Amino acid sequence: MTPTIRPRRLRTTPAMRRLVAETRLHPHQLVWPLFVGRDAAPISSMPGVMRHDVHSVAEVARQAVHAGLGGVMLFGVPDDADKDEMGTHGWLPEGMGQRAVNAVRDAVGDDLVVMVDTCLDEFTTHGHCGVLDDGGRVDNDATLELYARMAVAQARAGAHVVSPSGMMDGQVAVIREALDADGHHDVAILAYAAKYASAFYGPFREAVASTLQGDRRTYQQDPGNRREGLRETRLDLAEGADMVMVKPASHYLDVLADVAAISEVPVAAYQVSGEYSMVEAAAERGWINRRMAVEESVGSIVRAGADIVLTYWAKELAGWLK
Ligand code: PBG
């Protein structure tokens, strides 16, 4: 038997494979998450990732421009003494997130899209994404008001994009209204539309020195719920999201493909801390080829439908793509 139809013909040389590649990565579609606190320090659960101070973050933001990255996603990490029940430093002008945005905008101007996490978990003593009611449950509607304040503070500090990640119902609508009322019509909202209560955020919790008590299962989605990812996305689109995100990425490629199929706005995916650290740990032991695993994992996220990928490898990967 000699087959006449041979898919292998298109795999014969690197040039042929390049020509017929269905998925192409570009630095412009990569967003680099950066942590910013009072002092710079390595994050032991994420080898190769630093927590920055306002000076070093300005420097790495310039490196991000040089690498051709699309943007950065900033996370403010307050001192423990600046945490309280409500997460007040989330919206004070001198809060760590606002200072980080300021420093980065000063360094890069409009050469990079400056995004910032709009969520209170880094700033609350209990580590939850909102304020608690008398029963210790996160109070959705009381939290919305605080997100509105936080988004306005971030816009005033110079954020191009605010990014509500707390999974409160109605958060996109409330933030849009507050931004517009304060004159920030051009500040965009990247909505964490489908965000799951995932074990893969583990290393991040160290990065932001989270003091989380309990879990987030009353507000983040159940990992088994695929259809619900679409419901959450449609709600955020109706509320005015300018971009939508699926998170985590690698274990939720089905959700990502669903969202990409219905979204008329750009779709982002967040390759989270646990996805990063698993590859780093296996590569360090020599169990996988690090560069191939990084390219394959980010490439698969794009193949599934992501226009934009948030990844801790953004700068290094951009260097390889050049
Ligand atoms: C919440 C938030 C989290 C991450 C980004 N934003 C943590 C959580 O929901 O518990 C995780 C990011 C990562 O793991 O890389 N502000």
UniProtKB/TrEMBL annotation:
Residues that bind 5-aminolevulinate 1: R205, R216
Gene3D superfamilies (UniProt xref): Aldolase class I
Catalytic activity: 2 5-aminolevulinate = porphobilinogen + 2 H2O + H(+)
Binding sites annotated in the UniProt record for 5-aminolevulinate 2: S273, Y312
Binding-site residues for Mg(2+), renumbered to this chain: E232
Pathway: Porphyrin-containing compound metabolism; protoporphyrin-IX biosynthesis; coproporphyrinogen-III from 5-aminolevulinate: step 1/4
GO cellular component: a single term: cytosol
Active site: K195 (schiff-base intermediate with substrate), K247 (schiff-base intermediate with substrate)
Keywords of this entry: Heme biosynthesis, Lyase, Magnesium, Metal-binding, Porphyrin biosynthesis
Single Gene Ontology BP annotation: protoporphyrinogen IX biosynthetic process
Keyword Magnesium (UniProt): yes
Lineage: superkingdom: Bacteria
InterPro entries, A to Z: ALAD, ALAD_AS, Aldolase_TIM
Pfam families membership: ALAD
EC number(s) given by UniProt: 4.2.1.24
Subunit field text: Homooctamer.
Family recorded in the similarity comment: Belongs to the ALAD family.
Function text: Catalyzes an early step in the biosynthesis of tetrapyrroles. Binds two molecules of 5-aminolevulinate per subunit, each at a distinct site, and catalyzes their condensation to form porphobilinogen.
Record-given protein name: Delta-aminolevulinic acid dehydratase
Species the sequence originates in: Tessaracoccus antarcticus
